[in-house]
Design a protein that fits this description.
The complex is a heterodimer of chains A (316) and B (315).
Chain A lengths: L1 H5 L7 H28 L4 H4 L13 H7 E5 L2 H6 L6 H8 L2 E6 L2 H32 L5 H10 L5 H15 L5 H25 L3 H9 L4 H12 L1 H17 L2 H6 L7 H4 L4 E2 L2 E2 L1 H22 L3 H5 L7
Antiparallel strand pairs in A: 1-2, 3-4
Helix pairs in contact in A: 2-16, 4-16, 7-10, 7-13, 8-10, 10-13, 11-12
Chain B lengths: L1 H11 L3 H6 L4 H30 L19 H8 L1 H32 L6 H13 L2 H12 L5 H10 L15 H26 L3 H9 L4 H29 L3 H6 L11 H11 L3 H31 L1
Helix pairs in contact in B: 3-14, 4-14, 5-9, 5-11, 6-9, 9-11, 11-14, 13-14
Classes of the chains: A mainly alpha (316), B mainly alpha (315).
């Protein structure tokens, strides 16, 4: 096969390859500019970030990161001079703007909330999803197709439509603005993805492995635990990352159902405000920190991406 | 080595406890495995859905929980279907869905078709192109607001640099005729890679021998594209359109942060209207009815579409 394709009459010519490559590279570079701009802005000073024309060359500064993690108050220069020497780079930078650090900002707790809620809901969704997927894959479940469709159909709901009754229900149950409430909700949203993806992965593991194990004296449960699970590790890991990304990025539910203690980073980042409008370097710094895990995951996932985004409908 | 094998065998040998577990039949195990998921979905999705259906027949307001709830029958539904603002929101949504899907399909398919030439380094560049679709739509929407700022925003600056229009005149987010396009541009930037990836799978699923046969028959490249490439990739393109269609019909986060529905209500897609009614005007009953109508619409349209998709697949 490789011999025939190497000299194939249908292989694209060198010129057409070069042309295709040039266009794709140009598109990739242009589409990545907004992200590079976010990254660059996070290292600008506030005046540099709103300069006209937009500054491409600038003196890098970590003021944005300082502002992201602290709250500051304006003080008179006499007061600032009366303080001892600055205790760190951030302190020094802030004092140059006639301000002192008043305390930590809410960014870190919001970021931690995002971590707790994303990992908690991912664990639950993958756990439930693996069990259900195995059930659907290996046993004759009555109305299996209807149940699977029911599981998927919960994704058709616009999030705001779901949020209205959830808001009332959580208010009654005392789950409003709690990490537990958000974990339950994200688990319910992600479990449909987990079931569909994992069913695909488990379908691909030959039944013969379990049957052999069961002939050797394993129970069904042991066969599941010792032969199926180890073989499905890649699929489970990929599914977990997809669930993580969803929970990490989710905004609509978080914005409507959390306000304080359980608020996650996506609704918080747009609210970072400096003196006289949005503090863009701080917003950019928060965005950069928030996006880095996703970039890592994208690279890890690139081979499974297609499957994940189509609920396992396209497997390549 | 031998020792370890013996150890493994010993560990794997069923214990008395395990023998008890053996008592569970396959059928019992199936339900044991599936029911937690179903129960969770019933509690978090289905129960609230029924609650919403109930509320949609009432005048309940979530900010006045102690007020007596009146049963209105179908009045909420009638009012929504006769509400001019709702129809404007539906038109805005349709405009948004139509243009984003059209642009994403055209650009996405073209990109996939080019990547399928398999030039050197195509894997790296493909991964780079995929990055925007993995990001949080809310965070992206918020940041594009910065890029769209008149004068200081990078987008406005580049456009004015290229076109010669004074930078203060490029008001992407506050100009009534530009704002709908500003959300379409961001959505297209973000989700074209998604369509591209699915189209790429479609193109790669076409076996090479078909092209070889066409080459033997001296079919022109043009003819090959229209008679082989496009029809065989069509089910994949349609699948991408289905997923994007559903997602963009529900669109909330990116638009909410980019324009918040404004200026006025020019970018107020259905989900934004729903949010304003439910969480700003607190017309819970009314907005529940609207939510049900939206749900039925997505569900119905998706069902019709899936039937068409299956027909194309069977061809």
């Amino acid at each position: 096969m490789s011999l025939t394709t190497a000299h194939s009459v249908v292989a694209p010519s060198a010129n057409s390859k070069r042309f295709a490559g040039a266009i794709i590279i140009a598109y990739a570079l242009i589409s990545i500019v907004p992200l590079l701009w976010i990254f660059a802005t996070s290292f600008k000073t506030p005046p540099d970030s709103i300069a006209y024309p937009p500054k491409i060359v600038f003196q890098p500064s970590i003021e944005g990161y300082c502002n992201l993690f602290t709250t500051r108050t304006r003080q008179t220069s006499e007061y600032i001079n009366s303080l001892g020497p600055a205790t760190g780079f951030c302190d020094e930078t802030v004092r140059k703007r006639n301000m002192v650090i008043a305390g930590p900002s809410n960014f870190l707790p919001r970021f931690v909330n995002s971590l707790i809620i994303a990992f908690g809901s991912t664990f639950c969704a993958v756990f439930l999803g693996t069990l259900s997927a195995y059930g659907f894959s290996r046993f004759k479940v009555p109305l299996a197709d209807d149940l699977l469709f029911f599981i998927l159909s919960t994704r058709f709901m616009p999030p705001i439509a779901v949020a209205i009754p959830i808001y009332l229900m959580y208010r009654e149950l005392g789950l409003s603005d709690t990490a537990l409430g958000m974990i339950l909700l994200y688990t319910a949203v992600n479990v449909s993805l987990a079931v569909w993806l994992l069913k695909g992965f488990i379908d691909e593991i030959p039944r013969e492995y379990e049957e052999a194990a069961m002939i050797d004296g394993y129970t069904r449960l042991q066969a599941f635990w010792r032969t199926v699970l180890p073989q499905a590790t890649t699929g489970i890991a990929a599914t977990a990352i997809f669930c993580l990304i969803f929970a990490w990025n989710e905004y609509a539910f978080a914005a409507l159902l959390t306000s304080g203690t359980a608020q996650t980073a996506p609704p918080f980042i747009p609210t970072i405000i400096g003196e006289g409008g949005q503090d863009w370097p701080a917003v950019a710094a928060g965005t950069t920190i928030f996006l880095v895990p996703i970039l890592v995951f994208t690279i890890l996932l690139r081979k499974q991406l297609l499957r994940g985004i189509t609920f396992g409908a396209v497997r390549k | 080595m031998l020792n370890r094998t013996a150890e493994n065998v010993a560990r794997a040998t069923p214990e008395p406890l395990a023998r008890k577990v053996r008592g569970i039949s396959d059928k019992g195990l199936a339900w044991l495995f599936i029911s937690p998921t179903i129960l969770l979905l019933l509690a978090i999705n289905i129960f609230p859905l029924f609650w919403a259906i109930y509320l949609s027949f009432t005048n309940y307001r979530a900010n006045r929980p102690n007020e007596v709830v009146k049963n209105l029958g179908l009045a909420n539904y009638q009012r929504i279907l006769g509400d001019k603002d709702v129809w404007i929101a539906m038109q805005t949504t349709a405009h948004f869905v139509f243009w984003t899907i059209l642009l994403q399909t055209l650009i996405g398919f073209t990109l996939a078709w080019l990547i399928d030439r398999k030039f050197r380094g195509h894997a790296f560049w493909t991964t780079l192109i995929l990055v925007p679709m993995m990001l949080s739509p809310a965070v992206v929407g918020n940041f594009w607001r910065f890029l769209y700022e008149p004068q200081i925003g990078l987008f406005s600056y580049v456009i004015s640099f290229v076109s010669g229009i004074p930078p203060t005149d490029i008001q992407m987010l506050s100009n009534v005729s530009l704002a709908p396009w500003s959300i379409i541009i961001v959505d297209t930037w973000m989700w074209t890679p998604y369509v591209m990836l699915i189209c790429l799978a479609g193109l790669r699923s076409i076996p090479e021998y078909i092209y070889e046969a066409a080459e033997v028959d001296r079919a022109s490249n043009w003819r090959q594209f229209w008679s082989i490439t496009l029809p065989m990739a069509l089910p994949f393109i349609m699948l991408a359109v289905l997923f994007r269609g559903i997602e963009n019909f529900k669109m909330f986060d990116m638009v909410n942060l980019l324009t918040g529905g404004g200026p006025g209500s020019t970018t107020e897609v259905a989900s934004i209207t729903l949010k304003r009614q439910a969480f700003e005007s607190w017309r819970t009953g009314y907005s529940s009815a609207f939510a049900i109508i939206l749900f039925v619409a997505v569900f119905g349209l998706a069902n019709i579409y899936v039937k068409a998709l299956n027909k194309v697949k069977q061809r």
